[in-house]
Amino acid sequence: RPRSHTVTTTSSSFTANLSASSSTLAYDREFLRTLPGLLMVTEIVLGLLVWTLIAGTEYFLYPAFGWVMFVAVFYWVLTVFFLIIYMTMTYTRIPQVPWTSVGLCFNGSAFVLYLIAAIVDASSVTKELDSHNYNSWAASSFFAFVVTSCYSGNTYFSFISWRSRTLQ
């Protein structure tokens, strides 16, 4: 006896949404021309200097430099991540995230922890500690303070942006 088969096809709106949302990412060239964009690029370049100057030494023998390395590498990776987010305008595709608050928390925490790391770095640099690493550690200390000032600038701009969003 032949069996009858019933085939039911349903259409989902998921595929339509998927194809609409998978269009090419936007690229915001103008972001790099703004002061926050320039500060972010400076944070990346000088943050890279901070951790490479320390990484080229025997920093692992001194816990203070391990802390500086942690802060420098952690915020370097996150800053690169946020630069990609801003350059590709991904924040416009994820409106559920409060980007102004996220930016303020990120830049504020980077400022505070980098300030602590820069102070620890500067206070740990002595010629008696390890004379052949002195110049690298002194340079990393200088650049850590410069990166700290960049993060303080971006914290200010993030605060202004956050404040203007909360007043609306």
Automatic annotation (TrEMBL):
Location of the protein in the cell: Membrane
Name of one Pfam family that matches: MARVEL
Record carries keyword Nucleotide-binding: no
Transmembrane segments: 35-54, 60-85, 97-117, 137-159
One example GO MF annotation: structural constituent of myelin sheath
MARVEL domain residues: 31-163
Main subcellular location: membrane
Membrane topology: Multi-pass membrane protein
InterPro entries for the chain: MAL, Marvel, MARVEL-CKLF_proteins
GO biological processes: myelination
GO cellular component, one term: membrane
Domain of life: Eukaryota
Keywords: Membrane, Transmembrane, Transmembrane helix
Xref: PANTHER family: CKLF-LIKE MARVEL TRANSMEMBRANE DOMAIN-CONTAINING PROTEIN 8 (PTHR22776:SF10), MARVEL-CONTAINING POTENTIAL LIPID RAFT-ASSOCIATED PROTEIN (PTHR22776)
Entry protein name: CKLF8 protein
Gene: Cmtm8
